[in-house]
Amino acid sequence: MSFPSSIWKFTLAACVAAPFAQANAQGTPANVAIVRGTVTDSATHAPVGGAQIIAVGTTRGALTDTVGAYTLRVSPGTVSLRVQRIGYAPSQRTVTATLDGTATLDFNLRAISTVLSEVVVTGYGTQNRAQVTGAVTTVAGQDVQDQPVAGIDAALQGKAAGVQVSQNSGEPGTGISVRIRGAASLSASNQPLYVVDGVPIANDPLAQQLSPAGSEVPTAITGLDPNEIESITVLKDAASAAIYGSRASNGVVMITTKRGQAGKARFNIDLSTGIQNAATKLKLMNATQYVTYMNEGAVNDGEGIQFLAGVDDATSTDWQDAIFRNGPVQNLHLGLSGGTESLRYNVEGSFFKQTGIVIGSAYNRANARVNVDYDATAKFRLKTSIGLARENNDRIEGNNSDNGIVTNAIGQPAVYHVRNPDGTFTSTADTTPSNNSEVYSNPVAIGTYDRLPSVTDHILGNVEGNYLFNSHLTLTGTAGADILHDHEDQWRSPLVVGNYAYGVHGVAQTTFDNTNHYLLQSYLTYQGGSEDASSLTVVGGGSIEYNHEASSYLRGEGFSSPQFQYVGSAANLVGYDGIPTDNNLESFFGRANYSYKNRYLLQGSLRADGSSRFGVNNRWGYFPAVSAGWVLSDESFMGDFTNHFGQLKLRGSLGKTGNQSIPNFASIATYGSGSYGTTPGIAPLAFANPNLKWESTTEWDAGIDYAPFHGRLTIIADYYHKSTSDLLTRRQLPCTIGYCSFYDNIGNVLNRGFEFGLNSENVRPGLNNGFAWNTDFNISFNHNEVTKLNADQPVSGNNYRDISRAVVGQPIGEFYVLHFKGVDPATGDAIYSDTRINAGSPQPKFWGGLGNTISYKSFSLRGFLEFSQGAKVFNLMRIFADDGGYAYDNKFTYALNRWQHPGDITNEPRASFDGTSGARTISDRFIEDGSYLRIQEITLSYKLPGGLFAMRGLTNARVYVSGHNLHNFTKYTGYDPDVNSNGTSNIDLGTDYYAYPRARTFTLGISGEF
Amino acid sequence: MRNRLLMPAILLGFAAACNGPLDVTSKNTIPTPNAITDSSSARAAVAGMYHGLQSLDSYGETIPEVGDLSSDNAEFSGTSTSYGEIDDNQISTFNTAVLSQWAQSYDNINRANSILDKMGSLTNIADDTKAQLSAEAYFVRALMYHDLVKYFGDVPIILHPTTDPNAGSSITRAPVSAVYDRILEDLDSASARMADSSSTTTASAGAVRALRARVLFYRDDYVGAEAEAHAVEDDFGYDLAPNYSDLFTASGNSTPEDIFKLIAGVKADQQSYLSYDYFAKAVGGTYLLRPTRDLLNAYEAQDLRGQWNISFAGSRRYGSKYRSITGTENFPVLRLGEIILIRAEALARNGHLPEAVAEMNKTQARANATLFVLGSHTAQDVIDAIVAERRLELALEGDRWPDLVRLGTAATVLGIDPTQTLYPIPQSEIDVTPGLTQNPGY
Predict the structure, then answer these.
(1) What is the tens place of the pLDDT at every residue in B51-75?
(2) Which of B3, B5, B11, B22 to mutate to test the interface with A (most CBs of A within 10 A)?
(3) What is the pLDDT of residues A874-908, one digit of tens each?
(4) Do B326 and A504 touch (CB under 8 A)?
(5) Which residue in the set A584, A679, A879 is minimally distant from B24, CB to CB?
(6) What is the mean pLDDT of the segment spanning A814-842?
(7) B115 touches chain A (CB under 8 A)
(8) What pLDDT was estimated at residue A630?
(9) Cβ contact (<8 Å) for B326 and A739?
(10) For residue A452, what are the contacts with CB-CB under 8 A and spacing of at least 6?
């Protein structure tokens, strides 16, 4: 017996249980009856282990053991027991148990599709998949674990139909874009609403002021440990999401964390360690190629030679090698769960440590979670879900920054050394090479001297009480909090010669941000009728949510010594800010589900939201939804359909949702501060719109759930049509009245598409000598189109190069640039169209994932492919790295295919030092195909034999080795086509401006249970 | 029974809470009706008006930069499309820099209009305070309308704030002459109300006269311009700074030459980008634009202004007139050097050649440039020399392009189509103001 583990178990269990011990003793009722029985498979008569038995209308439940047996304590009398188990149709029967007596009740379960028997979390309740009438996708917790990424959103990539996950950047711990059924909003958030254990979390991006990079804003979800996740349910169609009303138009991601089960304490450990390296390197010129190319450009334009061949290219530095490194990634997760029938606990702690593949970057996260379920009495039960997270994120300036390490490693020509002979970093102040007039800062110096750390503390917790009036009626009350403290510092050292900080003798910034979100909600649930005849479930209640955010910011410049790195030592306080802001939401919601013989399913819901963000004339919004399902295969006229062809359900839904992620106070006319010198001043800031309201989305969905071959194949397919209107845009005003725009609800966007998910148990486990094979596949097609804008005026993105816009008739983010017609064979000059054209969409035509898991006895092999087709990427790096030699930046090697002599046929314009060839003109020459097929994961795992370790208390031990992002098949010439350097922008999509490269990771892990 | 009451009680609790939590007030903005209510808040609004003038879209960056970028003084050396178009004098109607300049000018006008309206309606402010604050608002409005008319020609005249989002339906362009009439009327209003302040960082009596000299000069009223410039030079105690470089030190020191300059501050929304945009990357700038080789060659080697205004990082020249990379130096809007050259050119055009040459020699002498000698030169020779001297003296201060347009030589000097001498009205503006016509050639 392992001595330390028992200590652990004892200590943790004692800590958790102590406060409840007394209450537990008081809460146990004296009069009990016992029901025993076994659960077997109706076809094979094999025992069904792990099935859940619930006394309907009570908190009492039990699990069957490995031989299918269960024992359940109930109150004497007639009780209904319900059995459910993934892969089987649920069953409910009644039995009469006498005081102190023992009754017997056996169940025969019919095997059905595993997928269709899942429990889905629907918001203010759960449903069995068989009853679901909307479009929802579930992802099991285990599918997002053992992934060498910091957040669950990244782990979701390719796993769920209709959910598009974009990494934006490979930097550890940074933000991910999640788009459910396409993006609709131009200025409000397009991220889904995350609901963790029933509490919506603040989904506005963190106020990270110190990173100039668009994509590197973490989402509030980043701090959750994937190991804590039991399941993820994505509510995709409006009818499913409408219960969350004014925040639901981007879909809702319901996250449920793991909870304890009654039984002896189980201690589990997951430990993994891995190594990451850069998956790809850009093909950039070496010193000789660079010197040749630059000199040729200078000669072409009648300028003098810029570099001395044979001198300046004597050595050649690979700057990418200089900034890349092998980065270890480690994860340790410890969990303890168990409890009595009335008090169940799950306590977890974990530590995740990732060293970035680019010098200077790292991400560490520590998590703790305590989930307790306490059935105080037969009528009252209490549960708490409390998660704590701390993230230490050593970020680097990256995307969209000219001071970034990656930026400068790509930009810096190979003719420079990393260090001088005396060990100091080379810089613009040096005299070699010959032409040193305009270079980038030394990226290794940036990585060595500059810092950009952020520390985030996240408390996410709630207490939920349930009172069961009787077997039909339950009252649920929840108090929840989501508290986020973020502290960031930045130091830009004057030792990095050639950048802004060098000019001003150092820049230090610091910011504190405190975001608090509190929720109070209560709702009543009525469950009546019988599943065999007609049943009705009604939920109704209300909630109130308070959001408060306060932040402060300081920026100082001018330091007497690089020893000083904090604002307090600065000579000049250059920037400062300090703003509290609030917004509150009041809601009422109701939903009814009616089912007749489990064959005809009907659901209706209504939510009313009142938001402080809306104008006084539109304070309350109402969001109705209806949906229906028809289990066609259960109809008698279908005869033996189910036996021959499997379950078949048709679904249809229609609903309305909103998006209230608009700025606070956007509806009123205001003056803001605007000081002149040291004189405090005020100036007009915003133009009033008392009619301002939420964006509203109306969506219909038609779907089919089909599970032929006795549930071994499951197909879930949906077509949706999602029309968003009252789009919140900055409506143009005549600037002559002093304001150029104000927020108004003008504009429509249409998303329509098709989703297809398939799960196939090609070879079912338990047969064929321990051989099993499972395939999962999903693919999503989405068509995005702007259908109306104010006065048909295109809306430009934020990128000052003005390459992306929203324009009627095109997808959001359609590139709008000159068209490159080719290179004139006579002159070598680039030829362009006279006017700009719609030059391609950054949105993919389809995307998805394909996974295969093959197991044989103790071995299991999993492979997962992720793909995206049809998106265009604007490789903005090329405006410097393929510009003919106008900038001194290093160049992509394909620029060597340049025109050199009259008659040359090529797509690369001639080298041109003064830009006369037109190579540097921004055009669709820089737009590339961003389609890809990625070998995202290959994992081989081995389950250790029980006999060897069982006596030491170790069970379910598993060793695995895996590789992630092993190869990406793509034509894209940047690091990775899954990129967006303007990650938080809704319009600037698919741009790559020196994005942090994606890592390839190899991991070795072990997990086990005591 | 107790339990049965629980749920209704909770729901009632929510109902009672209705709307209370939904009325949230902002803590960093003021609702507009509560903004200007007394003398203290009116003074704050006047400071806010100067804040607008000093902002990047106004004098902190755009106005001084495009004035040289459009001309033969400066050229585009960065990656901004909008500056590229301005440099090439091929401005699209979607040009963002032009839109910024247009929009911020009218924003500043709206700040002035809002103050003037409140000065008319508020009764709790002393008359002398009202007069002074109104005078400053009239001055700023005149300055902005003059900048607009120089670049865009006919422009709408807006004199009152509005809350109507559809106000654009009744806005049309006023002819250049009407705009000039309005400017002069505002300057008269400013003169009548302005206390004789010696401030150089807010509007003063001297600044009103100096602007009047400039406005009359641009309107080809050389007699008026000469008289106004004469008064400014003689009556207010201004004097040329001893050294040209004193005007543009990074610390933004005061000089006797200052008539009206804007204070830049260390805070981000008070910084100027003039140095940041002109400086080469090797010295910490963005190198968005740079002086042309033509301007470099126009300076004599010993001309201190050329030595100050243009520097080199390796083999690349960059604009070094503004030296505060942190953007904190004060920017001159009206300085005596300009007024002297206005007086010089007006004198020449009025036939007073020796006096004209004497005026011109004042700035030349300070710069260590070769002094122009009248000799047998014709009036046109003298005028041409003064125009050339203006280019050297005021380089990178945004005067060259308006000068070329004023003189009617933009097309020949720059080799551009004459229709390009007016900037386009931004298309987005025309979209919401149907009454606005576009300038020819766009």
Answers:
(1) 999 999 999 999 999 999 999 999 9
(2) B22
(3) 999 998 899 998 888 899 999 999 999 999 999 99
(4) yes
(5) A584
(6) 94
(7) no
(8) 93
(9) no
(10) A210, A211, A394, A395, A396, A397, A488, A489, A490, A491
Low-confidence winner among A333-342, A750-759, B323-332 (lowest mean pLDDT): B323-332
Measured distance CA(B261)–CA(B253) in Å, rounded: 11
Q: Do A467 and B3 touch (CB under 8 A)?
A: yes
Stronger pLDDT, A46 or A962, i.e. the higher one: A962
Q: What ipTM was estimated for this complex?
A: 0.92
SS3 A73: strand
CB atoms within 10 A of CB A640: 8
Look at residue A98 in the predicted model and tell me its pLDDT: 83
Instruction: Check if A689 contacts B (Cβ < 8 Å).
Output: yes
Burial B108-127 (b: 16+ CB within 10 A, else e): bbbbbbbbbebbeeeeebee
Whether residue A572 lies within 8 A of chain B, CB to CB, comes out as yes
Is some CB atom of chain A closer than 8 A to the CB atom of B102?
Answer: yes
Q: Running DSSP on this structure, what letter comes out for residue A324? A: B
> Can you tell me the mean pLDDT for A630-655?
82
- Give the pLDDT of residue A768: 59
Name the phi and psi angles at A130, rounded to 5. -60, -25
Question: What amino acid is encoded at A982 in this protein?
Answer: N
Collapse the DSSP code of B342 into the 3-class scheme (helix H, G, I; strand E, B; otherwise coil) and give the result. Answer: helix
Q: Please report residues of B whose CB lies closer than 8 A to that of A665.
A: 24, 26, 29
CB contacts under 8 A, A 739-798 vs B, are 739-740, 742, 744, 791, 793
Q: Which of A383, A316, A376 is nearest to A346 (CA)?
A: A383
Judging contacts by C-beta atoms under 8 Å, the chain A residues touching residue B279 are: 503
Residue type, A101: G
* Residue of chain A nearest B92, judged by CA positions: A835
Q: Is the pLDDT of residue B165 over 80?
A: yes
Nearest CB to A676; choose among B54, B79, B281: B54
Query: What DSSP character marks residue A870?
Result: S
Query: Concatenated DSSP letters for A898-934?
Result: B--STT---SBPPP-TTSTTSTTS-BGGGEEE--EEE
Q: What is the pLDDT of residue A22?
A: 36
Q: Which of B93, B193, B91, B72 is nearest to B142 (CA)?
A: B193
Q: From start to end of A126-278, where are the E strands?
A: 126-128, 136-140, 163-166, 177-180, 193-196, 199-200, 229-235, 252-257, 263-278
Instruction: Assess B320–A contact: CB distance below 8 Å, yes or no.
Output: no
Residue of B80, B99, B165 with shortest CB distance to A800: B80
More confident residue, A19 or B436: B436
Nearest Cα of chain B lies from the Cα of A467 at a distance, in angstroms, of 9
What tokens were used for A408?
Answer: 């400068």
d(C-alpha A806, C-alpha A749), whole Å: 10
Please answer yes or no on whether A610 and B41 come within 8 Å at the CB atom.
no
